[in-house]
Specification:
The complex is a heterodimer.
Chain A (H helix, E strand, L loop, with lengths): L1 H38 L3 E2 L4 E2 L5 H8 L1 H35 L3 H12 L6 H6 L2 H4 L4 H8 L14 H12 L1 H12 L3 H9 L4 H29 L3 H6 L7 H10 L3 H23 L4 H4 L1
Antiparallel strand pairs in A: 1-2
Helix pairs in contact in A: 1-14, 3-8, 3-9, 3-11, 9-11, 10-11, 11-14, 13-14
Chain B lengths: L5 H27 L18 H5 L3 H4 L2 H29 L7 H13 L2 H14 L6 H26 L4 H8 L4 H29 L3 H4 L8 H11 L4 H34 L9
Helix pairs in contact in B: 1-12, 4-7, 4-9, 4-11, 5-7, 6-7, 7-9, 8-9, 9-12
Classes of the chains: A mainly alpha, B mainly alpha.
Chain lengths: 289, 279
């Protein structure tokens, strides 16, 4: 009896402690998502949107050829960003975790990598203009080296610029979890591998990469959701020329076609959740904290 | 120490290039914000001046950026305080099993992985349907919390996973009440990590764009104001603003990291050395 009372008291405390958090997430996360689902069945005209139960929004979305091409384009951005972020992020984390020997230097360099994460994404996008523009640093450097005669037009306001900006903005989301996982790898495993005669590349391929997989997965989850839901980077860095799923939604919002935007949002959400569900099968997030 | 392998130098070079990639662009606009009055958005520098910084203080040149800055600052502080308090409470709650813990955990993860524009649109729609006015301090505040809280909570989970329960048991054995244990034992021990949570709370809010876009109402926050400028301002005044707000972010980051270092030193100095003589 007494033990039972104790348990319920501690449960009550836990519930009291999480209740404000749950209340905020319920009102500002769950309810908005539910609203999106409901409104995606509503109807609209030029002036307003109103309750109804129509499948028009989905029918239009799922039969329009634009949808498929926009999704393919977004997936292309995502795949390219993911490849570059994974290769660069892994290499940087590997250097920090296994080649830097003093903990102080390690923390210092790690902070150096994370500081840009705490500054404005929009400013970081703008800051590519003087670099990539027609008269920018990249073009002047290439011309003065004699590599090209005319300035390259595709450096800024192109798909190249979009992927470059994505990698620049989001590579930290790969560096941090991979570094975190690598720091927990027992160094004696590597010594054992070396004693057993493994070469450097063999240790990397058979010990370090398999043990870093949870970190790579967490980083991948971040990159997938950030790129799939993005609308601002694509709009700014492509100069408004490239489409993405997020941009379609933001255009529909700008035209006040809220039910259509809601339907697009629901489809995007399902896509992202499906991808995450697959990735979550490979990693137990609670164990990685 | 064994000599460095050749791969070390290759990787060090790669890391150096990576750091240049991270910081190069922002340094470039830092330099270009000192363009002369006739200068443009790219090199060459057309003289050196503070012209574009001076422009920031003239209302007609840039709109209401100082109002936007004040709003972003206030919102950042609000989000920071709520994020720290709720993350600590959530972290404490999750140290024990409770019914629904799994569901709450997935809610927190969901908050992190649901694309920002959906939160923005959803919150905007709720306020629209209920006929409430969206405002940065109400809808914007809530929408930003869905982004900062998961970061704060994940940090707290990591902190409490490494927390040595013996300290609390010792406090309880000495007769401390649960509140006293939290106030005088747990909080001082986790204080440096709380600085980290506060840093995330403030900076993620201060720079937030997508979740605030449809929830800020008629008064813009600074990132929204800057984005508005990108479509109609084509002079280095944009760089001057970018340089100033990035410097402000660096100042905030340095302050928080400094504070964390001080707290850690203080903890090491005031902490007991009991048991150390036995090893």
């Amino acid at each position: 009896m007494k033990i039972k009372d104790l348990i319920s008291a501690s449960e009550r405390t836990s519930w009291l402690l999480v209740s404000p958090l749950v209340a905020i997430l319920a009102f500002f996360l769950l309810l908005p998502i539910l609203t999106l689902v409901v409104v995606s069945f509503w109807n609209y005209n030029e002036f307003t949107f109103f309750p109804d139960f129509v499948f028009d929004n989905y029918a239009y979305l799922l039969t329009s050829p634009v949808t498929l091409s926009v999704y393919l384009k977004t997936l292309k951005f995502m795949a390219l960003t993911w490849i570059f972020c994974t290769v660069i992020g892994f290499t940087v984390a590997y250097f920090l975790a296994f080649h830097v020997r003093s903990l102080g230097v390690q923390i210092g360099l790690f902070l150096l990598c994370t500081i840009p994460f705490w500054t404005s994404n929009i400013i970081r996008m703008i800051s590519w203009i003087p670099f990539l523009g027609r008269n920018g640093l990249a073009n002047s450097a290439l011309i003065s080296m004699g590599v090209i005669d005319e300035p390259l037009d595709w450096l800024l306001f192109s798909d190249f610029a979009v992927v470059l900006a994505f990698v620049h903005l989001y590579v930290l989301f790969m560096v941090v979890p991979v570094f975190n996982t690598m720091m927990r790898i027992d160094k004696s495993l590597i010594e054992a591998a070396r004693d057993a005669g493994a070469s450097g590349p063999q240790i990397l391929a058979n010990v370090i990469i398999p043990l870093s997989k949870p970190g790579i997965m967490i980083g991948s989850i971040f990159i997938v959701t950030l790129v799939m839901g993005d609308f601002i980077t694509v709009r700014f860095m492509s100069g408004g020329q490239s489409a993405s799923v997020g941009r379609v939604i933001s255009n529909e919002i700008a035209l006040l076609q809220y039910p259509a935007a809601a339907a697009s949002a629901v489809v995007l959400l399902c896509t992202v959740l499906l991808m995450i569900a697959v990735m979550m099968r490979f990693v137990d997030i609670r164990k990685e904290l | 120490m064994e000599p460095r392998p050749r791969s070390f130098y290759l990787l060090a070079l790669f890391f150096g290039l990576f750091v240049i990639f991270l910081y190069g662009p922002i340094i470039t606009i830092g330099i270009l914000s000192f363009q002369g009055p006739q200068g443009g958005l790219t090199f060459p520098m057309n003289g050196v001046s503070l012209h574009w910084f001076a422009d920031l203080f003239e209302k007609q040149a840039v709109g209401d950026i100082w109002g936007a800055f004040r709003r972003s600052l206030a919102l950042g502080l609000m989000v920071m305080v709520v994020t720290v308090v709720l993350s600590v409470m959530g972290g404490l709650a999750f140290r024990r099993r409770f019914i629904g813990a799994g569901a709450v955990f997935y809610l927190i993860i969901a908050s992190l992985i649901i694309p920002s524009i959906l939160v923005s649109l959803g919150v905007g729609l709720i306020f629209n349907i209920l006929d409430w006015n969206v405002h940065w301090a109400s809808s914007g505040f809530g929408a930003q919390l869905t982004w900062t809280l998961p970061f704060g909570l994940l940090i707290m989970f990591a902190v409490f996973n490494r927390f040595n329960k013996a300290y609390e048991e010792a406090a309880r054995d000495l007769g401390a009440s649960p509140w006293q244990t939290v106030r005088f034992v747990v909080l001082p021990i986790i204080a440096p990590s709380l600085i980290g949570v506060a840093l995330f709370g403030f900076t993620l809010s201060y720079d937030e764009f997508a979740r605030t876009l449809l929830t800020a109402g008629s008064y813009n926050t600074l990132p929204l104001e800057i984005f508005g400028m990108t479509t109609n301002v084509t002079s280095p005044v944009l760089y001057a603003l970018g340089t100033l707000t990035t410097l402000f972010s660096f100042l905030i980051i340095a302050t928080f990291i400094g504070l964390a270092v001080v707290l850690r030193r203080r903890r090491a100095r005031l902490g007991s050395d009991a048991g150390k003589g036995l090893v």
